[in-house]
Amino acid sequence: MATTVVGAAFLLLLLLPFSISQPISDSHRSAASDLFNKISPSLEDAYEALRVFEILAIEKKPPVTTDTCHTVLENLGSSSSPLKDLFYALKVSGILKCDVDGAVLKKIASRLKATVHDASTLLDIYYSVGSLVLIKDQDSNVDVLLTDADEIFRSIKALSQSDGRWRYSSNNPESSTYAAGLALEALAGVISLASSEIDQSKQVSIVKNDIAKLFDRIEKYDDGAYYFDEKFVSGSEHQDSLSTTSSVVRGVTSFAAVTSGRINLPGDTILGLAKFFLGIGIPGDTKDFFNQVESLSFLESNRISIPLILSLPETVYSLTKKGQLKVKVNTVLGSAAPPLTVKLIRAFSTGAKDSAIIDSKELQYNQNGGFHFLDAFPKNVDVGTYVFVFEIVLHDSDSEKIYVAGGQIHVPIYVTGIIKVGSAEIAVLDSDLGNVETHKTLDLAGNDVVSLSANHLQKLRLSFELESPRGRLFKPHQAFLKLTHETKIEHIFLVGNTGKKFENVFDFLGLVEKLFYLSGRYEIELTVGDAVMENSFSRLLGHVELDLPEAPEKAARPPSPPVDPYSRYGPKAEINHIFRVPEKRPHQKLSLVFLGLILLPFIGFLVGLLRLGVNLKNFPGSTVPATFGFLFHLGLAAVLLLYVLFWLKLDLFTTLKTLGLLGAFTMFVGHRILSHLALTSSKLKSA
Amino acid sequence: MAKLIFVVLLTLIPILCTSFSPEKPSDRRILVLLDDFAVKSSHSLFFKSLQSRGFDLEFKLADDPKIALQRYGQYLYDALVLFCPTIERFGGSIDAAAVLDFVDSGHDLIVGADNNASDLIREIATECGVDFDEDSAAMVVDHSGYAVSSTEGDHTLIASDDFIKSDVILGSKKIEAPVLFQGIGHSLNPSNSLVLKVLSASPTAFSANPKSKLTSPPSLIGSSISLVSVIQARNNARILISGSLSMFSNRFFRSDVQKAGSPTKHDKSGNEQFFTELSKWVLHERGHLKAVNVQHHKVGETNEPSIYRINDDLEYSVEIYEWSGTTWEPYVADDVQIQFYMMSPYVLKTLSNDSKGRYFTSFKVPDVYGVFQFKIEYERLGYTSLSLSKQIPVRPFRHNEYERFIPAAYPYYGAAFSMMAGFFVFSAVHLYNK
């Protein structure tokens, strides 16, 4: 939980520009018009919208229509509607002035009175009492006075705890700060409804005591804002600190309104609560918005003490524009404060807290604008950051009792101005003697650039002067000199001052290692800036060609320059496959010519045979050997044809299979014909 | 038993229906962890813009002992918003490792840090490749690019307009007004190639304690300072890290803005547009691609073969769609490339598209055989990466697929056949001559 509180405190500080808060202004009004723009069916939401618009006095009506009045009447007419609905229906009708019949109200009043007696939970009592108070306000003819107010008062008080918190019901032991707010409001209602002057003094003083105890539980932010925080409560909805604080404020202020005598609460606490609500800024949630605005409206007109908020429309004062330093004092909702004087007690520079530049000065009041102003800054105020300490002094001693202004208020003020930049020069020096080799003056306001060259034995000196508008030395927050190498490697140097002069001497011999021994062109860029310097600048002074020695082997490598993120994502270059080139072949005609040449020997063979006068007279004459002979040559022809087919279309397997069959056949018939021929020739020989 | 399983399934249905799925990649359920419930109200415009886009936000205090990211091994949320810069330890079972596991399982993360960011938040950021300035009092200060304000004089309220150039991350509509920033700067880890600067500081900015004098050059300086960064992890989980929580606040959303040195005053800062668009990207309403219907076949055929032969002509097509938050829209780009890959790409070709999401091309299979892949490695700035690969073997020619009637070989054929004819004639002459 501690971290939550710390976190919350921190966040609040972030939301607040400073510890001073601005009262509710027009931005709140326009935000309200934007936020409450939807018609919500729930009467609670409708009431919140109406109430916010009423408090902020927004002309435009919230988007609740006659339908809402219709719902109100429906709720009031029904005898079984829940207390909560009844309560909000009455609240809405109070603002919208719905035409509610007196008889209806009477019926409700009697029902509510009965409920109050029997009610056991705080919420039931709260809603019933609240509704009765509303009926009393709306129709004076209805008798809403409670005869046994004392008893009811006690029954509510019975739920209180010793630490100032309340329980929701008698059988629920958990106590809650939120419930305390509800209970106090209910008690206030009971007092206002009492038919006879009840024996208040004793009871009321006990309750006042309870309030004091409740305020002991208050928590505080660093900037002086006070708030109530609800610890986790099991069984009921968790309330955040805004609604809890808001509930307490509502309860305490309404209780204070009906009781005589003051409730003694320190003014700082009330102011702190106001700061808490204002510090939220403009909430984005309708519920939060309502809680904030309603609580502020209670603080605006409470009987304990009314907080006054000191605010400055501007905390940046420009010496060149010579404006006025304006201070506004308003109530939390932005309405005018009683006659008062704003005193500037002290103003001192943040750097030198002891020497005040202004001591005890009264601010003048501008009647038309409704603000206090410091007509002129004393001559000795120079640029810088200051803390102004204001105090609000009320004119009337009576109003001091009513209002709380919160003592001394510290406000940080920035006084800005134009800083004179002058006598800028850049020079290259010889290291050992300090002789100036090249020397160039610069106009830092212009755009001219210089180009220099140097080697590692030389020095580069840059100097310039900064002078505040009052002629004093000005030390800026940011005085950087940047050397950027061609490879985008940057080196940053702070420029220090000696006396009035800002000077930076680069002894390159000592810097070679830092520069990674990178020779080449370096761009020189000077950036001077400060929060109070209106002419902060960053400009390129020129470049220097550096001639540095070769890097020794052990020297640190320069870091790789940052990769451009866009380059990682582009499409890649296309790749086309390079196919193997087919082997070079002779021209087709050449092949055909050679084919012809190849066929020539065969033709020669045939011609030779004819010339020799070959014959086939040895072919057997008888039928059986002739058949075999014929078949043998047919087989041979078939085998050769198979070879042709093998070339043309067949594959090896078909060819071999067919060749096997044909071979066996040809061998068989070949054997028969050859043996026949051999027999014939041997017969011939032997014969 | 069967009844029990049925009941369990029935209770799971609503969870299954609304959870993150490849078919509907937008997140639905978001856990928002806060330091203080006041943030819920002070940053309500940002939350409302999420809710109006259909996200289901659950707000919890970061140290709530009941918070959990997963139950029974199932993640309860699709995205996590950490608006709790000062939290030192989360409540419940969540710690830095749990948050990183959440991201590792493909869920999204939005971190709003601030100066005084706790070590826990810094650790989570460091794991994502973002290093916040180590000096906890440091803020980004820019004496030349600050937002003109009559109440803030220390120049830590920066108006920045150095955005990343990416339509998919920041939307196609140009952000006219500068974005207000107040908080801590960070640098990107140079070894992390997934992290991107979305909003960078100007060259005159630096990160230092605005209240104390500088004694040494600040570690973060110039445009290397990142103000808002995003990371898209390899599993397409997206992370947004901002150095300022107040950037998301209603005050900054509504504030007018004038950059120092610029004459134009904008009525409204660019913060709302910037974060609305950026959150669309982070929560996968934009830039999420899917590739479906990968087809490849030989030219003139329609069926997908199981193997290609070298030198085949093939056609390849794929359909790519982008998620628009509600529907899958055709994705149109002219830089989608296909690789035909075996150890290294043999063919790399840009696909043509028909503007309806279909990408196609045709090419010749290289004359190298082996096991190839059709590969699409599509990585573009801001888009989820597409990585498709499909294995396909490529074989050489079969023995009978080579060329058969080569004219250059006719003399050899002629020789053989004339030899055969001669043999036939000779055999007859030899046997029967008298």
UniProtKB/TrEMBL annotation, chain A:
Record's subcellular location: Endoplasmic reticulum membrane
Superkingdom, natural source: Eukaryota
Subunit structure: Component of the oligosaccharyltransferase (OST) complex.
Annotated ranges, domain Ribophorin II second: 308-415
Domain named Ribophorin II C-terminal: residues: 579-678
Membrane topology: Multi-pass membrane protein
Function as written in the Swiss-Prot or TrEMBL entry: Subunit of the oligosaccharyl transferase (OST) complex that catalyzes the initial transfer of a defined glycan (Glc(3)Man(9)GlcNAc(2) in eukaryotes) from the lipid carrier dolichol-pyrophosphate to an asparagine residue within an Asn-X-Ser/Thr consensus motif in nascent polypeptide chains, the first step in protein N-glycosylation. N-glycosylation occurs cotranslationally and the complex associates with the Sec61 complex at the channel-forming translocon complex that mediates protein translocation across the endoplasmic reticulum (ER). All subunits are required for a maximal enzyme activity.
Organism the protein comes from: Cicer arietinum
Protein name stated in the entry: Dolichyl-diphosphooligosaccharide--protein glycosyltransferase subunit 2
Membrane-spanning intervals of the chain: 590-614, 626-648, 660-679
InterPro entries: Ribophorin_II_2nd, Ribophorin_II_3rd, Ribophorin_II_C, Ribophorin_II_N, Swp1
Biological process (GO), any one: protein N-linked glycosylation
Taxonomic lineage from the root: Eukaryota, Viridiplantae, Streptophyta, Embryophyta, Tracheophyta
Domain called Ribophorin II third: residue spans: 423-546
Keyword Transmembrane: yes
Broad class of the protein's primary localization: endoplasmic reticulum
Cellular component terms per the entry's GO annotation: oligosaccharyltransferase complex
UniProtKB/TrEMBL annotation, chain B:
Keyword set, alphabetical order: Endoplasmic reticulum, Membrane, Signal, Transmembrane, Transmembrane helix
OST48 N-terminal domain boundaries: 29-282
UniProt cross-references to InterPro entries, sorted A to Z: DDOST_48_kDa_subunit, OST48_MD, OST48_N
Subcellular location: Endoplasmic reticulum membrane; Membrane
Signal peptide: 1-19
Domain OST48 middle: 296-433
Top-rank taxon: Eukaryota
Membrane topology: Single-pass type I membrane protein
Swiss-Prot/TrEMBL GO biological process terms: protein N-linked glycosylation via asparagine
GO cellular component: oligosaccharyltransferase complex
One of the Pfam families matching this protein, by short name: OST48_N
Transmembrane segments: 410-432
Pathway the protein takes part in: Protein modification; protein glycosylation
Assembly behavior: Component of the oligosaccharyltransferase (OST) complex.
Task of the protein: Subunit of the oligosaccharyl transferase (OST) complex that catalyzes the initial transfer of a defined glycan (Glc(3)Man(9)GlcNAc(2) in eukaryotes) from the lipid carrier dolichol-pyrophosphate to an asparagine residue within an Asn-X-Ser/Thr consensus motif in nascent polypeptide chains, the first step in protein N-glycosylation. N-glycosylation occurs cotranslationally and the complex associates with the Sec61 complex at the channel-forming translocon complex that mediates protein translocation across the endoplasmic reticulum (ER).
Membership in a protein family: Belongs to the DDOST 48 kDa subunit family.
Name the record gives this protein: Dolichyl-diphosphooligosaccharide--protein glycosyltransferase 48 kDa subunit
Organism field: Cicer arietinum (Chickpea)
Gene that encodes it: LOC101493126
